[in-house]
């Protein structure tokens, strides 16, 4: 008779905090050899001295484990449970990679989406996905507070079938509690992203999580709705866990069903020992940076690609960053503000007719001053590819802005090496009654498509109401109008919101050097007014997304006459691919695909070894963008002897007519009516920097610039009367926003 106990496999837990410490304790108590690795020296020393301690109620229990810092660790890693903060994942992988056995693996027992980074660094075969919702806290070195029951799901990444290693791991983790195996860990992770956003929001105040969620249901529902809109677009099947049911928190859910789900969730939270989130503890107790911004990086990235706004989630992340090192500023008023942000956009009230008429008359009296400014501005060449001209033009603009608006409250010049610099000027509010004190972003570009020297043969010309010249329509008149709108409000002492004027010098070449700065500025802005030219007088409430792709074919060269069958023609293959690609056009859905440039071959008697096509794609919806992405990713050669590669990407996301955009358009129409004219709206194929702004969640009023025609053509023109009308419209919208 053999009484020997079976040898239990060992585990290394990297990060022995709340999650890692809880699971390390359970595995060690069940007889598994456990080593915990943690960078906190005091935590490691306490575990070495007293063992790893878990506190439940008034009872503390200890188990012996091996504890070490990363620097002291020696040996090879086999089964690694990774439980560090999300923002520390990269550093932890740097340490793990050289020590991990060829058949070893890493389980991501972390908050957020970390599996893709682990797979990228270590390989998919050495990555195990996990969803963990454990209520625990480190309350002192070496001691973990057990906050109550939770959930734990293990599976292979990317929805792979449950494997033997996953089954073994789940069986071992039954020592903790109800761990389960699943082929849809992703569904749990996205569901937790919604639930976690609620918990993150509660860290903006110092009160129990359940109470804050209960009192701020509008904000909490809107938060989860933003996240689940992204998961729905990605085709993720959400999974319920603990007392959280994701489906009642999706957009459009029945209010009664949602309220019942809130009731169950908050009742369950009140049974938990832990009444504050780990994020709250990081801010209020540990005084260290929070990991929530890292948690939601993937959500923000997917949302931007899909053209889905996430204003509440961004507000939560911004608020948490503001509280780092300033926990004393925690306040439930921050959640009150989220509730207001979650409300459907309320129509702004336009100013009274007397104010609007005063603005119009004042600007009409200064129309010749506006024309003179446009003439002087047009005389400044600003070709996108001439850095010297752009620098000179921006210097002129700074001086002109000083003369017209006075010194700003603050000014920044964001330098760019291979493009025009970015000018950011901030002007304070005056006499506002609005509850939203974030600035309005006035966005424009000062570069043009016209090469240096164009002014020599085509200068600024005024003929009555008609003005022509390089850049007058796109978009120099628009900036003149924006500045004179602000000047009119100042001269008439009318209310205006805080305004940020932001000018970039590379819009005509795709805003590659300014996109990130524009998005960052827009995140902290209430809305954006983009002074791009109008579409036959209409504002632009939808724009297509733009994709710029290159198809490169590599063939096999041969003598076309002596050995015509020996080669594989890259030109022939490209012709096949072009015919296939043009089948992707969907005019009814607003999708166009243009093969604008084709190059290939070297000589007529040589089978072409190389061919290239450059493609412009325009899409009206995020769904069409996804369809085209998938189709381009699936491109394969017709002739197997050739190789086909598709490179490039989306230069601008889709600009969709969101609720916020529609509300702004409605305000602009009401203001136009006060000025005595109708204001149509249009959906256009061209893109602007407004695409970036809408995609990250900030409402946009676009096309409020020049009235005219001929963008990028020698017929480019604008109207003097239109300059006055549009400047008056911009001023009237701004004063309405100040009096909301």
TrEMBL record:
First and last residue of the signal peptide: none
Record-annotated Peptidase M20 dimerisation domain positions: 541-634
SUPFAM superfamilies hit by this protein: 6-phosphogluconate dehydrogenase C-terminal domain-like, Bacterial exopeptidase dimerisation domain, NAD(P)-binding Rossmann-fold domains, Zn-dependent exopeptidases
Record-linked Pfam families: ApbA (PF02558), ApbA_C (PF08546), M20_dimer (PF07687), Peptidase_M20 (PF01546)
Basic and acidic residues bias: start-end ranges: 331-342
Top-rank lineage group of the source organism: Bacteria
Record keyword Iron-sulfur present: no
Ketopantoate reductase C-terminal domain span: 184-323
Location of the Ketopantoate reductase N-terminal domain: 12-158
Membrane-traversing stretches: none
Keyword set includes Hydrolase: yes
Keywords from the UniProt entry: Hydrolase, Metal-binding, NADP, Oxidoreductase
Record region (Disordered): 328-355
InterPro entries assigned: 6-PGluconate_DH-like_C_sf, 6PGD_dom2, ApbA, Bact_exopeptidase_dim_dom, KPA_reductase, KPR_N, NAD(P)-bd_dom_sf, Peptidase_M20
Family: Belongs to the ketopantoate reductase family.
Protein name: 2-dehydropantoate 2-reductase
């Amino acid at each position: 008779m053999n009484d020997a106990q079976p040898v239990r496999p060992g585990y290394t837990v990297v990060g022995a905090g709340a999650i890692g410490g809880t699971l390390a304790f359970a595995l060690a108590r069940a007889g598994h050899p456990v080593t915990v690795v943690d960078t906190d020296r005091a935590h490691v020393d306490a575990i070495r001295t007293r063992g790893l301690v878990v506190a439940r109620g008034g009872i503390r229990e200890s188990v012996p484990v091996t504890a070490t810092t990363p620097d002291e660790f020696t040996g090879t890693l086999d089964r690694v449970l990774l439980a560090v903060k999300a923002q520390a994942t990269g550093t932890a992988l740097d340490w793990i990679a050289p020590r991990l056995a060829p058949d070893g693996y890493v389980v991501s027992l972390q908050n957020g989406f970390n599996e893709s980074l682990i797979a990228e660094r270590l390989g998919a075969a050495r990555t195990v996905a996990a969803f963990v919702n454990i209520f625990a806290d480190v309350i002192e070195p070496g001691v973990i507070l057990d906050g109550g029951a939770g959930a734990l799901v293990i599976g292979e990444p990317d929805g792979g079938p449950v494997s033997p290693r996953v089954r073994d791991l789940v069986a071992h983790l039954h020592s903790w509690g109800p761990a389960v195996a699943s082929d849809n860990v992703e569904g749990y992770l996205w569901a937790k992203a919604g639930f976690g956003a609620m918990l993150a929001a509660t860290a903006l105040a110092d009160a129990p999580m359940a109470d804050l969620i209960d009192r701020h249901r509008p904000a909490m529902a809107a938060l989860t709705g933003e996240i689940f809109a992204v998961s729905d677009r990605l085709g993720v099947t959400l999974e319920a866990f603990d007392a959280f049911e994701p489906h009642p928190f999706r957009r459009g859910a029945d209010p009664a069903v949602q309220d019942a789900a809130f009731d169950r969730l908050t009742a369950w939270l009140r049974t938990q020992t832990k009444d504050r989130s780990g994020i709250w503890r990081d801010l209020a107790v540990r005084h260290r940076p929070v990991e929530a911004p890292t948690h939601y990086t993937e959500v923000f990235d997917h949302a931007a690609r899909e053209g889905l706004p996430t204003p509440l989630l961004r507000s939560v992340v911004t608020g948490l960053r503001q509280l780092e090192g300033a926990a004393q500023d925690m306040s439930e008023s921050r959640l009150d503000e989220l509730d207001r942000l979650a409300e459907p956009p309320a129509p702004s009230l336009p100013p009274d007719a007397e104010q609007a008429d005063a603005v119009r008359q004042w600007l009409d009296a200064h129309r010749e001053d506006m024309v003179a400014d446009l003439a002087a501005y047009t005389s400044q060449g600003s070709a996108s590819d001439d850095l010297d001209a752009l620098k000179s033009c921006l210097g002129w603009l700074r001086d002109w802005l000083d003369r017209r608006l006075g010194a700003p409250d603050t000014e920044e010049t964001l330098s760019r090496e291979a493009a025009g610099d970015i000018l950011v000027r901030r002007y304070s509010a005056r006499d506002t009654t609005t509850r939203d004190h974030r600035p309005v972003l006035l966005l424009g570009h000062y570069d043009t498509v016209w090469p240096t020297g164009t002014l020599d043969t085509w200068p600024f010309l005024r003929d009555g109401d008609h003005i022509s010249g390089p850049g007058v329509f796109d978009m120099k008149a628009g900036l003149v109008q924006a500045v004179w709108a602000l000047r009119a409000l100042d001269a008439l002492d009318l209310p205006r919101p805080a305004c940020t004027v932001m000018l970039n010098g590379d819009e005509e070449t795709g805003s590659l050097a300014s996109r990130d700065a524009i998005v960052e500025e827009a995140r902290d802005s209430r809305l954006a007014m983009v002074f791009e030219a109008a579409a036959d007088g209409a504002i632009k409430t939808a724009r297509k997304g733009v994709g710029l792709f290159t198809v490169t074919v590599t063939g096999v060269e041969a003598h076309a006459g002596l050995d015509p069958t020996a080669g594989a023609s890259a030109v022939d293959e490209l012709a096949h691919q072009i015919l296939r690609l043009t089948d992707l056009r969907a005019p009814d859905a607003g999708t166009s695909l243009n093969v604008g440039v084709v190059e290939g071959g070297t000589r007529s008697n040589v089978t072409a070894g190389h061919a290239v096509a450059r493609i412009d794609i325009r899409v009206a919806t995020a769904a069409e963008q996804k369809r085209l992405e998938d189709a381009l990713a699936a491109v394969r050669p017709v002739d197997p002897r050739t190789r086909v590669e598709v490179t490039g990407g989306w230069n601008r996301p889709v600009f969709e007519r969101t609720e916020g955009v529609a509300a702004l358009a409605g305000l602009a129409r009401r203001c136009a009516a006060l000025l005595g004219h109708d204001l149509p709206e249009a959906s256009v194929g061209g893109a602007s920097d407004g695409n970036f702004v809408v995609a990250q969640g900030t409402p946009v009023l676009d096309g409020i610039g020049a009235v005219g025609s001929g963008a990028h053509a020698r017929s480019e023109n604008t109207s003097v009367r239109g300059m006055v009308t549009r400047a008056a419209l911009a001023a009237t919208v701004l004063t309405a926003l100040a009096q909301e």
